[in-house]
Amino acid sequence: MSAALQGTAFGLALLSTLFLLLATCTDCWMVNADDSLEVSHKCRGLWRECVTNMQDGVRTCDQYDSILADHPVKIVVTRTLMITADLLAGLALATLVLGLDCITFLKEDPCVKLKMCYGAGVILGTGSILGLIGSVWYAVDVYVERAMLVSHNIFLGVHYDFGWSCWLGMAGSTGCFVASVLLTCCLY
Q1: Which CATH number fits domain 3-35+72-186: 3.40.50.2300, 3.40.50.970, 3.30.450.40, 1.20.140.150?
Q2: Which residues form the signal peptide (predicted)?
Q3: Of 125, 126, 106, 108, whose CA–CA distance to 116 is shortest?
């Protein structure tokens, strides 16, 4: 039972870590689309902003000036939290691989391997919470930005939606959290 639970937690942690990495690297955290004309589709990310022309499919991207330049708080905080979550999830994944029963590392001491799995679960849980905070922070800021435009009658037919990168960050963080619960609560 323990090996099956470890395998399930490892698979979920691996998939969720990949989701977190993709969410951090991709550029569609917030979608701006023009409702009336449907001419272009704009995605804003943590690192750049891309516009896709809906008629011919041409995509152009503008990199943000510099990582050290002044950026909105939502971008800086989300970058920091997502990069930290990625690093912690990667560390937890490496620790979990060494703690798996099917790996011959420290095979003669199963207590240490169990503690490594437990430690990986704690690290993964910490990373998942940071990733979830970063993703939700960005989503709430997008919602507030949209609500401010609507309340000031500056709507102009443009709508703001959460991009697929934001949803991927939330899914990856949730998956890491579930894997953490499996490793810390259910493994014993």
Answers
A1: 1.20.140.150
A2: 1-28
A3: 106
